[in-house]
Design brief:
This protein is of the alpha/beta class. It is built from 23 helices and 22 strands. The strands form 6 sheets. A 9-stranded mixed beta sheet has the order 3-2-1-4-5-7-6-8-11, sandwiched between helices. Strands 13-21-18-19 form a 4-stranded antiparallel beta sheet. It is globular and about 90 Å long.
Length: 577
């Protein structure tokens, strides 16, 4: 092997290999890189070209064996002295692994579904002369998408500028391998995107790790680089970093640049990230939010949104991706061409709507598309929920030991109510018993006529507290809505929250990727139709009458089920059989 080729093969990964010297699997990876790069540069022994064996599980390991047995093997001692030792069998096993074969096959895509890459590429509108950055290069998927998008436009690799960033050195190494063996001349950088540097890019794609805490990104460093670009960027606190990543993507754009950033659905409305959302909206950096249904992010069954970012956005477009789902040969896909066509259209309709920044800002910068799409859910004559009730308080938030200290049984005079203990508007007859109200839970003792709302789960559950002989205490996952003794109002509000429109408000104002939760602050915002007293009373009475019927029917059903299970013993009570 010539020294120049030795440099091509070994030196690009020596620093990374040293950094991971104690990880045997990385030594194998570095050796794999050397093998592939040597094959690519054709230091040739008479074997098929690499692209001819990418799809053949038996051929690639054999290819590696042949390489190791060739005249090039004499240079491996020198390689091992600098890059670390490796096991020959492990190297062959590495290429025999199904995941490795998929990695080497440029047709396979990781992290996101191929249609998401297609959508992101279409939204970015990559053109001749653009500099493109993938800020989550991982194993090089979008780096290659951007490269070939530019290639398709120009018909040449002259002047193409594509860069991928990953703070994970192994991911950067894998990306380097994949780009090199597939002929992609992208630059790969193994460093955090929050390190200050002067480069700016025309097009940026970013799919960050959802829900990562800000502590994992070095808060002082992230705060510093964002302050370099944005005046008065909110203080970064210990919370989810989803919008901090989005802000960093925006900070790396050129004046006419465009970015697409993936953000989990719960971050579009969560109170923890409200300050970041307000900053981005106020500074006109969000062009659109496109809700993507579950199933288009490999390895995580969560809903997320693609946020399009650029400077000078005076309106925000909201799109419901659910409306663009299609099924092709049993596989669920998105009709990306139709979505992109509607994205560029100016008309508002069921799946797409455009809102002014003032309209978004007035709603606490809630960026959930479903919040703005479809029918208008506000009645002409409405009042905020919080203006109608006396107060909303959370149930007792106590450690398990505090409850265990007063644990009782079915005969106990104090019972605990959790959100699992009520459904169809009724609180269960049987509840966990306690000998006393635990210290610290006094404010969570329920009153007759209180309205209960589950704090988590969807659809959210609602119930009105009826008179009971036991003392009831709500736990931390129950919101207690105090009516000031107005039992009729409790039933009216329950009727509204259980209606189709009320349930939609609970959904729109909730947050969470897998387990939805709703805050007291958001419950207070729900617009409630301000019916006259006669109408309100009629609705409350009708619901109460239906509730009594459900309770009686449920009791009869429970009694019948008990009798059914004991038919044999009843007939055989004298032991005649």
């Amino acid at each position: 092997m010539k020294s120049s080729n030795m440099a091509k093969v070994v030196r690009p990964l020596i620093d990374v290999a040293r950094r991971y010297a104690e990880k045997p699997e990385f030594a194998t990876l570095a050796a794999a890189y050397a093998v592939l790069l040597s094959i690519r540069h054709g230091e040739a022994f008479p074997l098929p070209a690499l692209e001819d064996v990418l799809d053949r599980e038996e051929a690639l390991p054999g290819y590696v064996r042949a390489f190791l047995e060739s005249h090039l093997s004499e240079h491996w001692k020198e390689y091992q002295q600098t890059a670390g030792s490796y096991d020959e069998d492990s190297l062959v096993d590495f290429f025999s692994n199904e995941a490795t074969l998929m990695l080497m096959d440029s047709r396979h895509d990781f992290s996101t579904h191929p249609v998401i890459d297609q959508l992101c590429t279409g939204l970015l509108e990559i053109a001749v002369g653009n500099t493109v950055a993938d800020l989550n290069c991982g194993i090089g998927k979008f780096v290659r998408k951007a490269w070939f998008a530019l290639w398709n436009v120009t018909g040449s690799d002259e002047g193409l500028s594509v860069v991928g960033y990953s703070r994970n050195a192994e991911f950067a190494a894998l990306t380097y391998i994949l780009c090199d063996v597939t002929g992609v001349g992208a630059r790969v950088v193994a460093q955090s995107i929050f390190i200050s540097h002067p480069e700016r890019y025309d097009r940026i794609a970013l799919i960050p790790p959802f829900g990562m805490e800000t502590r994992a990104i070095n808060i002082p460093m992230a705060q510093q680089v964002l302050a370099e670009r944005f005046e008065n960027f909110p203080e970064i606190r210990l919370s989810s970093a989803d919008w901090v990543f989005a802000a960093r993507a925006a900070s790396l754009l050129t004046a006419d640049g465009r970015a697409v950033v993936a953000v989990p659905i719960h971050a579009l409305n969560g109170t923890q990230s409200q300050a970041y959302r307000e900053f981005l909206v106020r500074n006109q950096l969000i062009e659109a939010v496109i809700a993507i249904p579950r199933g288009f992010l490999n390895g995580a069954a969560v809903s997320f949104a693609i946020v399009v970012m650029r400077e000078g956005c005076r309106e925000i477009k909201f799109i419901n991706g659910e409306e663009y789902q299609t099924v092709v040969e049993g596989a669920r896909l998105l009709d990306v061409p139709r979505l992109l066509k509607d994205y560029h259209a100016l008309n508002d309709y069921e799946a797409v709507t455009t809102k002014t920044l003032d309209a978004v800002y007035s709603r606490d910068c809630n960026l959930t598309p479903d919040f703005y799409l479809g029918e208008d859910l506000v009645y002409n004559n409405s009042k905020p929920f919080g203006k109608i009730v006396r107060e909303i308080r959370r149930g007792a938030k106590l450690p398990i030991d505090a409850w265990k200290a007063v644990e009782g049984d079915d005969s106990s005079s104090v019972k605990k109510v959790a959100f699992k203990h009520f459904s169809e508007g009724l609180i269960d007859e049987r509840l966990p018993g306690f000998t006393a109200v635990p210290p610290g839970a006094e404010d969570a003792v329920l009153e007759t006529g209180d309205l209960l709302i589950s704090r988590m789960g969807f659809p959210f559950k609602v119930a009105v507290v009826e008179h009971r002989n036991e003392k009831l205490v709500a736990d931390e996952n129950v919101w207690i809505v105090r009516m000031g003794g107005d039992r009729g109002l409790a039933y009216y509000l329950r009727a509204y929250l259980e209606s189709e429109r009320g349930a939609k408000w609970l959904s729109r104002l909730s947050a969470g990727a897998t387990l939805r939760t709703i805050s007291a602050k958001n419950i207070e915002k729900i617009p409630v139709p301000d019916a006259d007293e006669e109408t309100r009373t009629a609705i409350a009475r009708e619901l109460e009458k239906a509730t009594i019927l459900v309770r009686e029917t449920r009791k009869r059903l429970d009694d019948a089920l008990g009798e059914m299970k004991n038919v044999f013993d009843t007939f055989n009570k004298d032991g005649g059989l």
